[in-house]
Amino acid sequence: MNSDIKHEQLKKWINEVAELCQPDQVHWCDGTKSEYDQLMNFAVQHQMATPLKKRANSFLFRSHPSDVARLESRTYISTTNKEDAGPTNIWLDPVELKSIMSKLYTGCMRGRTLYVIPFSMGPVQSPIAKIGIEITDSPYVVCNMHIMTRVGTEVLKKLGTNGEYIPCLHSIGSPLSPGQKDSSWPCAPLEDKYISHFPEENLIWSYGSGYGGNALLGKKCLALRIASAMAKREGWMAEHMLILRLTNPQGKIFHIAAAFPSACGKTNLAMLTPVIPGWKAECIGDDIAWIKLASDGKPYAINPEYGFFGVAPGTSYESNSSAMDSIKENVIFTNCALTDDGDIWWEGMDGEVPNHVIDWKGNDWTRGNKEPAAHANARFTAPARQCPVICPDWEKVEGVPIDIFIFGGRRASVVPLVHEAYNWDHGVFLGATASSETTAANIGAVGNLRRDPFAMQPFCGYNMGDYFQHWLDMGDRMGKNAPKIFYVNWFRKNAEGKWLWPGFGDNSRVLKWMCERVEGKTGAVETPIGYMPRPEDLDLSGLNLSPEFLTELLRVDPVAWQTEAADVEKNHFVKFGNRLPKRLTQQLDALKKRLGV
Ligand code: SAT
Ligand code: MN
After folding, report:
1. Which ligand is nearest to the CA of 242?
2. CA 301, 305, 307: angle at the middle one, nearest 5?
3. Residue 297: how many CB atoms within 10 A of its CB?
4. What is the mean pLDDT of residues 227-243?
5. Residue 298 placed within a domain
6. Residue 310 CA, ligand 2 centroid: distance in Å
7. 372/436 same-domain check
């Protein structure tokens, strides 16, 4: 196939990388099913994957116990000036970082195949789409990329002889000497792992990890970190947002884009089954939105991905039946448990807990074992087209017009079920001060409260202060077409530690209120933190929610919010120095005034 490639610069880059990494051979991916099947056969033969008897064309992989999630502590934004990476990113000088990594890359693919994956983020013909070329030595990565992105010949055709692409270099960092037996999940030790971004030259270098966002470089690395920097330069938005279409009983359509941190229920909200009669929900994307202003002045969003890389534990017919129906066949499972009859299992799945499974580490596990059988960040990789509620317009090249932005996170206390921004600047303030308890999607402590602005803390490829300004600028450009902005918290608990809100399909009640706010059809009260629904403004019919729970869900505690405001001022905004837009300081002052501080 190499001889068919007409893009001289691309061939040159591949040759240079091959010389550096010294693979046994080079394979150009064509994205076909037979290519996928061959790679899966290879993985099965080498005991890297287990075919599942109960799910057609589906496979289970178990990762190395040290390589189970994104690694924020080894993720770098490498810009000429440190200030351009900003206070929320880890920075290294590009010359230094490239020198360290070039040494690691030297000979790192010995005994392996170098795969060249031409992929498109977004429908190939979409004016919003971007092309990437990932080089990897991991068949697991190639198969995942087949599902998560549009891969192959069509992409190369679009690239032509001199089209632009984003180079994404990946190696698991585990060369094989002649005759050496491979392990089932080769990877490099922690101190050699690097997930590096050079936004000034749209370049990604990743080394040492084979897991998720560290290795499937189209996702967080390209579609968020590099794309956010491109979007800033080019006047569009790359956001960590699901995209959802809601249709009300009168047939009016609303599009919602919602940002929540990793493992906070984006996939569940993206596929929700409304509990309120007559409302319909359809999924467009579950993780990333690329948004451009069209000639009508409205923001249009596409989902740049082609599949779902969803958190498995907790997914069930009860919590997300559409996700369960999306994963019946053609799925890659990672770090789930294996049942005795050849199916997968995880904590929170419907039905009985099995008596015996093989756990994610490959060991026998029996019911009652204190350790979970599936890793908390176990994942399924499934084609988006298999989702029963995928929107017929999910691949529309021009995207869908966004009416509502939502921000949120996991907060056991303080933050009420929902509040609405007073205006665009206030909405940007809500995004900029978003906070959440950390989850297993990143290697590190779980449950720690942190600021996660716009759910982009791990994914913004430049100075977050400049990113805040970009949001303000986009609002100025949109004017009256700017979507309304809301903030939600599905995770508030009572004093006994019980969830106050049922979540999942019942979240449609909150979305209904938002749509009615957009239409000017329902009421709200002004509170120090924003507009909020009165109990009678929410459609709670058929929900058995105690009045005490409802009161607590909608309660704004001024003292707790004074503490929040002080935390924003002293521990958060202060980090951004002169890159913090004045308009956000004004929003903080206005909040403090409303709180009587
Ligand atoms: O591993 S990923 O980065 O793709 C998943 C996530 O953190 O959202
Ligand atoms: Mn995500």
Report:
1. 2
2. 130
3. 12
4. 98
5. yes
6. 9
7. no
Q: Are residues 119 and 27 in the same domain?
A: yes
Look at residue 3 in the predicted model and tell me its pLDDT.
63
- Tell me if 279 sits within 8 A of 246, measured CB to CB: yes
Question: Could you give the count of Cα atoms lying within 13 Å of 559 in the half-sphere of its Cβ?
Answer: 0
d(CA 245, CA 118): 30
CA of 131 to the centre of ligand 1 (A): 20
| One-letter amino acid of 12 | K
Ligand number nearest CA of 258 is: 2
* 330-345 tens-digit pLDDT: 999 999 999 999 999 9
End-to-end CA distance of the chain: 68
How much distance in Å is there from the Cα of 442 to the middle of ligand 1? 8
Place of tokens 């938002």: 514
pLDDT at 103: 98
Q: Is 311 in the pocket of ligand 1 (CB under 6 A)?
A: no
CATH number at residue 290: 3.90.228.20
The reply to whether 488 and 543 lie within a common domain is yes
Query: How many Å apart are CA 214 and CA 221, to the nearest integer?
Result: 8
pLDDT tier for residue 4 given thresholds of 50, 70 and 90: confident
Q: Which residue puts its alpha carbon closest to atom 4 of ligand 1?
A: 213
pLDDT band at 2 (very low <50, low <70, confident <90, very high): low
**Enclosing domain of residue 323:** 307-386
Per DSSP, which regions of 217-331 are E strands? Answer: 237-239, 241-247, 253-259, 280-285, 289-293, 299-302, 307-311
- Together in a domain, 89 and 180: yes
Residues 111 and 287: beta-carbon distance below 8 Å:
no
Which of the following is catalytic: 264, 283, 336, 387?
A: 264
DSSP β-bridge partners for residue 282: 245
Is the domain of 89 the same as that of 197?
A: yes
Is 478 found in the same domain as 535?
yes
163 occurs within a structural domain: yes
Confidence band, pLDDT 50/70/90 cuts, at residue 365: very high
Same domain, 348 and 297: no
pTM, full prediction = 0.98
With a CB cutoff of 8 Å and minimum separation 6, the contacts of 19 are none
Q: Within a domain: residue 59?
A: no
Distance (angstroms) between ligand 2 centre and the Cα of 458 equals: 10
Q: Which ligand is nearest to the CA of 219?
A: 1
Report the amino acid identity of residue 77: I
Cα 363 to Cα 204, 342, 366, 583: the distances in Å are: 36, 15, 10, 55
Torsion of CA 221, 285, 306, 477, to 10 degrees: -60
In a domain, 57, yes or no: no
The reply to whether 143 belongs to the active site is no
Both tokens of residue 236?
């569009």
- DSSP H stretches of helix in 258-315: 266-270
The yes-or-no verdict on residue 1 having pLDDT over 60 is no
Instruction: Name the helix (H) or strand (E) containing 271.
Output: none
Same domain, 280 and 219: no
